[in-house]
Design a protein that fits this description.
The protein is an alpha/beta fold. Helix content is 64%, strand content 11%. The protein has helices spanning 3-18, 22-51, 61-110, 113-117, 121-163, 165-212, 214-219, 223-275, 281-322, 383-390, 413-418, 434-438, 447-456, 460-464, 483-497, 513-527, 562-568, 571-578; strands spanning 53-55, 58-59, 344-351, 360-367, 372-376, 398-403, 406-407, 420-423, 432-433, 473-474, 501-505, 531-535, 547-552, 555-560. The strands form four sheets. Strands 8-11-12-5-13-14 form a six-stranded mixed beta sheet, sandwiched between helices. The chain has a four-stranded antiparallel beta sheet with strand order 4-3-6-7, with no helix packed on it. It has a two-stranded antiparallel sheet with strand order 1-2. The two termini are 63 Å apart.
C-alpha cells in the first residue's frame, strides 16, 4: 500500500472512532460556526463606531456607547460558546484516545505470543503510550482550530463581498498561494513524522531493555557499548525530529508572508476606494479587519495540517498494532473443561517457531491421570516448547494435543489454562501486596488459606520478616526480594490454587539446596494424584518421576523410569553421569 492510500486508510479508521461521538461533533461544528460569525460581526460594529467620529468636536458618543454595549455582549456570548466548544472537543478527543488505548490493550491480550516475542516490548509500549499521546494532541488541535477556521474563512468572504466585490476578488485570487504552501509542506512532513515515531519507539525499546537488564550490562562491562548504541539512536531521532520540525516550522512564516501580501493589497485597494468615496473610512477599517481575520485561519489550518500529519503518522502505528492478526479464535461452542482427571495425549505433533528450521517432529506421548512426567534433554531440544504447546501459547503445526480425549483447539483457552498450575524458572510478580500476588489464581482465598500455601512453599518465614508481612507492597520486579524468594512466592501461588495438572519448569532453580529438599517434599505431596510435567536440568530432582522422557532434536529418544533408563546405559545414562563427573 502506497503512502497516500495508507494515510487515507488511517484517516478512515480515525473517523470510525469519532463516529460514536457525532453528537459532540455536531455541537462543536454549530458552536464553531456561531462563535466565528459573532466574532466577524464585531468589525462591523467597530466600523460603525469609527463612522460616528465625524470630525474634531463632532463625535456621536451616544451612538458609540450603544455600539460598545452591543460589542461587549457579543464578545461575552462568543467566549461562552468557545468554552462549550472546547469542552466538546476535549470530550471527543479523549473519548477517542480512551477507546483506541483500550482496544490496543485488549488486542495485546489476544495477540499470539509469536508477535509479542518477535517485537521489542518498549516499542509496543511506545505505540500505546507515546504515539497515542501525539495523536491526541494533533486531534485536539484539529478540532479546536479547523472548524472555526473554515467558518471564519466562509464568513469573512460573505461579509467582504457585501462591502466591496472588487477588493474581495483580489483577496480570493491571492488565497491559492497560501494553500499551495501548506500543501507543499504537508506532503513532505508525513513521512518525516512517521520516521520520528518509529525512531522514538526504537529508543523506548532500548531504554526499557537496558533498565530491565542493568545488572547484566554492568556485569559484562557493556556500559560504553550500550551508550554508543543509545547515542546512535538518539542522533537519528534528533536528525529526523529536526527535519520534521524544520519543514513544519516553515508553514507559519510562509503563510504569514502571503497574509502580509493580502493585507497590503487590501489596504492599497481600500484606500483608493475610500478616496473616490466608494467606501467609508469605517468600512475600510472593517475590511482590513476582515482581511486579517480571513488570512489568519490559513495560518492556523496549515499548522493544523502539519500537526495532523504527525497525528496520522502516530495513529498509523497504533492501528498497525490494532489490526494485527489475533490468535486463532476459539471454535464455536468450544468445550469448557470440568472435572479434569489429567489424561493428556500428544498425537503426531509437529511444530517449529520458524518454518525454515524444524524443531518437534512426529511427537507421540500418552500421559495417564496422576502421572509425573519429567522432560529432560540438552538445551534447545524442545522441552519448554512442549510446555508452550500444552498451554496453547502456540498452536501445533500438525497433529493434535488432547486433554480428556478432547482436542485442545476445541477447548476454551481459559478453562484449559486454569486446569494447569505453572511455575517457571522466570518469576512474575505484579504491583501489589504479597497477599494479592499469591491470590492471582484464587482471588477469593481467605488469609488462612494464603498462609497455609505459603507455609507449604516454605515462604511463610521470610514473608513474616517483611515490614508489613502479607500486606507488604512490592513492585512488579519484586524489588527488595531475592530471586529465590520471588520463586517461592510463585510456588506458593500454585499451591494455593492446587489445579488438577501441574507444570514445573525448573521451578527450584534459584532456591538453596536445603530449601529445595523441603520444596521437593512439598511438591511430592502436591503432585500426588495430579498429572505433572516437570522440566529439569538437574536430573537428581526427577528420580521419583513415573516416567522420564529424554528428548533430543525435538524427538523422544528414550522413555522410562530413572532406574530403567540408567539400566539401558544410553543417552540418559551419559547425561546423568555427566552431572556428577569430576
Amino acid at each position: 500500500m502506497d503512502k497516500k492510500k495508507k494515510q487515507l486508510q488511517t484517516l478512515k479508521e480515525v473517523l470510525s472512532y469519532i463516529k460514536k461521538y457525532r453528537i459532540y461533533m455536531l455541537l462543536s461544528v454549530i458552536l464553531a460556526a456561531a462563535s466565528a460569525l459573532l466574532t466577524l460581526y464585531v468589525p462591523i460594529l467597530t466600523g460603525r463606531a469609527i463612522d460616528f467620529i465625524i470630525e474634531a468636536g463632532r463625535v456621536d458618543f451616544y451612538g458609540i456607547k450603544n455600539i460598545l454595549i452591543e460589542a461587549g455582549i457579543i464578545i461575552l456570548i462568543t467566549a461562552v460558546l468557545q468554552w462549550i466548544m472546547n469542552v466538546c472537543n476535549n470530550k471527543i478527543t479523549y473519548h477517542v484516545v480512551h477507546d483506541i488505548r483500550e482496544e490496543a490493550f485488549e488486542k495485546i491480550e489476544i495477540l499470539p505470543l509469536k508477535y509479542i516475542d518477535g517485537k521489542s516490548h518498549g516499542e509496543i509500549v511506545s505505540r500505546v503510550i507515546a504515539d497515542v499521546d501525539q495523536f491526541s494532541e494533533g486531534l485536539l488541535m484539529g478540532f479546536t482550530q479547523f472548524f472555526t477556521g473554515i467558518t471564519t474563512i466562509l464568513g469573512t468572504l460573505f461579509f467582504m463581498f457585501r462591502l466591496n466585490v472588487g477588493i474581495t476578488i483580489l483577496v480570493v485570487c491571492l488565497t491559492p498561494i497560501s494553500l499551495f504552501v501548506a500543501s507543499f509542506i504537508a506532503k513532505r512532513t508525513f513521512s518525516m513524522f512517521k520516521l520520528q515515531s518509529e525512531t522514538r519507539g526504537e529508543q523506548t525499546g532500548l531504554i526499557e531493555e537496558m533498565i530491565g537488564n542493568q545488572k547484566v550490562v554492568q556485569a559484562y562491562g557493556q556500559e560504553e557499548k550500550v551508550l554508543k548504541r543509545f547515542d546512535e539512536i538518539n542522533e537519528r531521532l534528533e536528525k529526523c525530529s529536526l527535519n520534521a520540525i524544520f519543514f513544519s516550522s516553515l508553514t507559519n512564516p510562509c503563510t504569514r508572508f502571503v497574509n502580509g501580501l493580502v493585507y497590503a493589497g487590501v489596504g492599497f485597494m481600500g484606500a483608493l476606494a475610500a478616496i473616490h468615496g466608494k467606501i467609508t473610512v469605517g468600512q475600510l477599517s472593517c475590511f482590513l479587519s476582515y482581511a486579517n481575520q480571513y488570512t489568519k485561519p490559513f495560518n492556523e489550518i496549515s499548522g493544523v495540517v502539519t500537526e495532523l500529519q504527525n497525528a496520522l503518522a502516530c495513529a498509523g502505528r497504533i492501528f498497525e498494532l490494532i489490526n494485527e492478526e489475533p490468535q486463532t479464535p476459539e471454535t464455536e461452542n468450544a468445550y469448557v473443561l470440568k472435572n479434569v482427571e489429567g489424561k493428556v495425549d500428544l498425537e503426531d505433533v509437529c511444530f517449529s517457531y520458524d518454518t525454515s528450521r524444524k524443531l518437534i517432529e512426529h511427537l507421540n506421548l500418552s500421559v495417564k491421570p496422576g502421572q509425573r512426567v519429567a522432560i529432560v534433554g540438552p538445551t534447545g531440544c524442545g522441552k519448554t516448547t512442549i510446555i508452550n504447546l500444552l498451554m496453547r501459547f502456540y498452536d501445533v503445526n500438525k497433529g493434535s494435543i488432547k486433554v480428556e480425549e478432547k482436542d485442545i483447539k476445541n477447548i476454551t483457552r481459559k478453562s484449559l489454562r486454569t486446569s494447569y498450575g505453572m511455575v517457571l524458572q522466570e518469576t512474575w510478580l505484579k504491583n501489589g501486596t504479597i497477599e494479592e500476588n499469591l491470590k492471582i489464581g484464587k482471588p477469593k482465598a481467605s488469609r488462612e488459606e494464603v498462609v497455609e500455601a505459603a507455609k507449604a512453599a516454605h515462604a511463610h518465614n521470610f514473608i513474616k520478616r517483611l515490614p508489613k508481612g502479607y500486606d507488604t507492597y512490592i513492585s512488579e520486579d519484586g524489588s527488595g526480594l531475592s530471586i529465590g524468594q520471588k520463586q517461592l512466592l510463585c510456588i506458593a501461588r500454585v499451591m494455593l490454587c492446587l489445579p488438577p495438572m501441574l507444570i514445573l519448569d525448573e521451578a527450584t532453580s534459584s532456591i538453596d539446596t536445603r530449601t529445595e529438599l523441603k520444596i521437593q517434599n512439598a511438591f511430592a505431596k502436591m503432585m500426588k494424584g495430579r498429572t505433572s510435567f516437570i522440566v529439569a536440568h538437574r536430573l537428581s530432582t526427577i528420580k521419583e518421576a513415573d516416567v522420564i522422557l529424554v528428548m533430543k532434536d525435538g524427538s523422544i529418544i528414550e522413555q522410562g523410569t530413572h532406574q530403567e533408563l540408567l539400566g539401558e546405559k544410553g543417552f540418559y545414562f551419559n547425561l546423568y553421569n555427566s552431572q556428577f563427573a569430576i
